[in-house]
Amino acid sequence: MSAKAAIEARLRKIGRPEDSIFKNNEPLIMQWDESLKELSKSIERYYLDNRQTKEEYAEKLEILKEIEKYVTKNIFNKKVCLLLSGPSSNSILQIHQWKFDVKAVVPFGSSASGLGMKGGDLDMTICLHPGFSPKNKKIKLRTNMILEEILEDIDSGRMLPHREFEDMEHRFRGRIPIVTGIVDDIDLDISISMTEGVSAQYLTCKYIDAYAKYDHRFILLAVFAKAWQKSMKTDRNERFFKKIFPNSCTIVLMVIFFMKRYKLLPPNINKKHAEHLGIDRATWARVRQGENGSFGIPNEDVSKWKESNYCDVSIGTLFMLYLDFYSEIVDFSTQKLDIENGILKEKEASRRTAEIVIVDVVDKHNTAESVVYSRMLQHYMERAKSVIMKTDRKQLLHILMNSPIKDISEYSEKEFKELRERRLLPKRRGRRY
Q1: Beta pairing class for 94-98 and 101-108
Q2: pTM of the model
Q3: Counting beta carbons within 10 angstroms of the beta carbon of residue 154, is it exposed (0 to 12), middle (13 to 18) or buried (19 or more)?
Q4: How many domains does the chain fold into?
Q5: 283 found inside a domain
Q6: Which of 46, 98, 296, 420 sits 20 to 30 Å CA-CA off 129?
Q7: pLDDT digit string, tens, across residues 208-264
Q8: Based on the domain organization, do 223 and 369 belong to the same domain?
Q9: Helix, strand, or coil here: 178?
């Protein structure tokens, strides 16, 4: 089934827009595109008004290069002392010295791809050699000791003394420890990579740019999906919010999967373009040169795919279908998202405890593990879809982007009981959520 046929079939189940000016037999894609044309314009305008400028990105890269120069000359120019535990828990801590080479310091995350927006973070990772197996239990300890030394040099003023730092801290308990804070009004996250090759986060940026090459609507949809989700967060509900909504990385993967399911993006590009997206392409020399874009996926290949698969559907209609897909079609309790192939698979019994399971091409870690209440996520996506379908078009964007969720403490006993009865929240003693 083509992308157009698949979308048309789903829209038939959703129904015609209430304000349709067309006859019943007209294609529903055309009817919904017309109905949501103002929403589409708003999404496109939001992206154009808020996307990261070349000057902003250049400023971030300048900070990155200064940090790279400092750590290379002042921290990794000598052996680094690392405390490692002995063979038993009762043994005395041992001091080991390691000589690391800085292979590259690379940006990753939204700012390093087409998803970069104004005021976005500078996420950077220091790639060190020799690498260690990801299963090595001492990697996190070593990483935290190195980050502690980096933070000490920042706090002492030895690192980048001409720049202003605020709220710098070492977050050592996370899955990926970081030094985080603000430098010259730019949010900064520094992490360490000790893998043999370039970090998975860096390669992810290349995949994002590759998908954007196939369909720019991917960027528009991912950016707006993030903005819509962020609009429901407040200082009061932040803790509850994080248990419901996925992180930024997961939103991007969900958009990729959704577009693959509707054949708007090709599956298996990592296999088809292994020479452009594979780890072999990411040599240290090429990474250090700061190669941008999608590692050169041939324009001819992209054009051929578009000729056979491109579907002319508006970004407003796609956003509604995105909400519909995850609130009505996907069963998070029994299914997992296979990003590489763009197919839903049955969850293994061992992963049933995770609310949402995503299997990524690059990073094998489940990025959606922070989501605790997937049914609440689907509830709010269904609510947003209903707003799009039923709200007067002049008020649509305002209502859609100004409807923050309640904190769990703000629900009445009656509302709280109803959430449990509808299985939006699990049954637990009291209000321990």
Answers
A1: unpaired
A2: 0.89
A3: buried
A4: 2
A5: yes
A6: 296
A7: 888 999 999 999 999 999 999 999 999 999 999 999 999 999 999 999 999 999 999
A8: yes
A9: strand
